[in-house]
Amino acid sequence: MTDSLLDRLVDWDVANATARRMARPGPQVSASEAADVVAQLHQLAISAQPHVQAITTMAAPSRDAQVLVVDRPGWVSANLVSLRAMLEPVVDKLTARRGLDPGPLAAAIGGKVTGAQAGGMLAFFSTKVLGQYDLHPGGTPRLLLVAPNVVQTEREMGVDPTDFRRWVCLHEETHRVQFTAVPWLRQHILDEARGLATDLAPDPSTLVHTLTDVARRLPGVLRGDDGSLLDLFATPAQRERLAKVTAVMSLLEGHADVVMDEVGPGVVPSVAVIRERFSQRRGGTDPRDRLLRRLLGLEAKMRQYRDGARFVRAVVEQVGMTGFNQVWDSPDTLPTPREVADPRAWVRRVHG
Predict the structure, then answer these.
(1) pLDDT of 5-22, one tens digit each?
(2) Which domains does the chain have, with CATH numbers?
(3) What distance in Å separates the CA atoms of residue 321 and residue 314, rounded to the nearest whole number?
């Protein structure tokens, strides 16, 4: 790994060590139980392929189905690699635009602080994520399944382990199909994410004004009626761009949620029970957990599942799955924020 400006701004070793130190341990399982869970998750991820293809009618090459079953430290390590690859071109653009080049001392201190912050965030998320289709910028995308989180969740919900594991795999396999059956989608998402990150980077010349506005709006965020911390630092134009990206993410998450439910009891016998209990769990009950989720934007993430699933079901009801799949034709056929809320508007625009 070369020593780039990004590597001076973020101490990745500190990030990794911080995340591993702060992440809570997973559920207690024996070595043989852990091996069985890993083997079953891998097998269920592969066996989910024909079910997802049957529902979506989207063909994705199975040879691209790289499945990794990881623990929490493994998830952290994988995401640090992807995060670095995602941010490097962003930092290069900011450097060219603003002449960003901290001195050796500032970089050494700032890099450790930034690394610790990144590690703390990853530690939190490493206990929440059940699975992920890692776009892995610069590398080979892969499907990640976080075994301890799957086991902990199924135990907390009191559901059938095999059914729940298959259900999770159906969701993540749908994401794999989205990004492998639609050739332009992966790069489109990466470009949009990088562009948004570049836009959201604070401009030193307006930093005082930004912090003043943040202080004014922070009470609204804490009450739950004024977005997340990310929204605080965004201008109206940036929030509009963020809304467009959110609309696409709502489509992807909602589509995967619809597929994992549409398989029915013939594939996942207790699917109705799992959906009911999982939806209740998404709501959260601990006030401290709800506050942290709101600050980090996870409440918005939960809305993506709900709003996206509603959009997908409404469009399929009007024009069928074949008609819905025109959403994947090009970036121009992706739904806008207004269309996610009003699926008929998307149907009118795309189908006439």
Answers:
(1) 777 778 899 999 999 999
(2) 5-201+234-351 (1.20.150.30)
(3) 11
